[in-house]
Amino acid sequence: MLYEFSYQFHLMDLGKLFILLVFGLFIWFAWKAWKEEKGWKRLTLSLALSAVFLTALYSLLIVPLRSYAWAKKQMETGQYGAIEGQVRDYQASPSKAIWGHSSDSFFVGDVEFVFCGDENYGYCVFQCDGGSIHEGQNLRIKYLEDPFYGERRICEIEEIE
What we know:
The protein has about 160 residues and is an alpha+beta fold. It is about 40% helix and about 25% strand. The chain has two domains: about 10-75; about 80-160, CATH 2.40.50.
């Protein structure tokens, strides 16, 4: 087995937590100031910042975890796509770009797989970073169509003879 389904924690996730911490502290200080001055402007600011904080929390942390939980359930119940064949048309990133804007892609049969290197679950190791997929390799791949991100995620990779 070249890859088994798992959740990957990335260093960028620490940055997300830091941003949420800063937002949380800012909201707390704004709320504290409002309580002391009882001003409507402070209340409005606090509510607006709370909305931004909750939106950031949802998009940065909850959506990836929810997506992973959905994928795990799909894998456990056998509701995934599977394909076997030879890897062709592998397009490797020359090097990993900052913020994960580079991507590797390849085909197995008629199915195209693209990954950006920063996914929270699913195979996402670039060839230039020691990835285990290469042109001409015979593989069995189990994958999911992720409804949260609109992407095809590789959940298992097995090399076949």
